[in-house]
Amino acid sequence: MPKTFTVRLPNDLYETARAAARRRELSLNALVQKGLETIAREEQEARLYEAFGVLGEDAAEADVEFALDAQREVVTREGGSSRPRRRSRAR
To answer: How far apart are CA 24 and CA 31, in angstroms?
Structure first.
């Protein structure tokens, strides 16, 4: 069930957000929701990056940014196996 809360904004921020929502053809509620979804996604990516970073002993070895999308797909996949599908090799 969706949750409801009240946000108090300064008038100038409210007007800026309202104008941005209009330009994007969104309700103010949808604009705020999209912004919060973006923040949540960035937080998740940061946690995954930090978790993978502890696996490597040096910066070059710990750089796993390239794997974030694949890892997110595996972690968030609903139903089915949690193991990634193997690609068949063309011979």
So the answer is: 8
